[in-house]
Amino acid sequence: MHEYDDEVLNVFLKYQSKLFDENVADNLEEAEAFLEDCLAVVVNSLQEVWEYFDENGVDLEGMELEDIEDASEVFKIPDGRYLIVEG
């Protein structure tokens, strides 16, 4: 089971439209349930986002590390962590 702190949940709630056409959650509890259902992952650096994508078969050819931050599945948390949500 994953645990997501309020900072992660708030970032997801605020920016969920980056990945989805309509909101999938309207409050912290719904956000947490959604993230748990889709097995979202919180990592500590862009390098770990890269490694996650690489391990999961995402084609990274021609991409730079900095480009990963712009992926629709990646949400930057203010404290430097990243949330990865596979929609």
Fold and architecture overview:
- The structure is a single chain.
- The relative contact order is 0.23.
- The protein is α+β, with helices and mostly antiparallel strands and 87 residues long.
- The protein contains four helices and three strands.
- The chain has helices spanning 6-15, 28-37, 46-55, 65-68; strands at 41-43, 74-76, 82-84.
- Strands 1-3-2 form a three-stranded antiparallel beta sheet, sandwiched between helices.
- Strand 2 and strand 3 (82-84) form a beta hairpin.
- It is globular and about 35 Å long.
- The mean pLDDT is 94.
Give the topology.
Layout: H1 6-15, H2 28-37, E1 41-43, H3 46-55, H4 65-68, E2 74-76, E3 82-84
What labels would you give this structure?
globular; alpha+beta; 10% strand; 87 residues; 3 strands
Low-confidence stretches: none
Helix content: 25-40%
Q: Tally the helices.
A: 4
Number of beta-strand segments: 3
User: Cα-atom Rg, whole angstroms?
Assistant: 12 Å
The largest sheet has its strands arranged as 1-3-2
> What spatial form do the alpha-carbon principal axes imply?
globular
List the secondary-structure elements in sequence, H or E.
Answer: HHEHHEE
Q: What is the rounded distance between the termini?
A: 18 Å
Helix/strand/pairing class, anyone?
A: alpha+beta
Mean pLDDT score, rounded?
94
Approximate strand percentage? 5-15%
Summarize this, please?
With 87 residues, this protein is α+β, with helices and mostly antiparallel strands. Helices cover 39% and strands 10% of the residues. The longest helix has 10 residues, at 6-15.
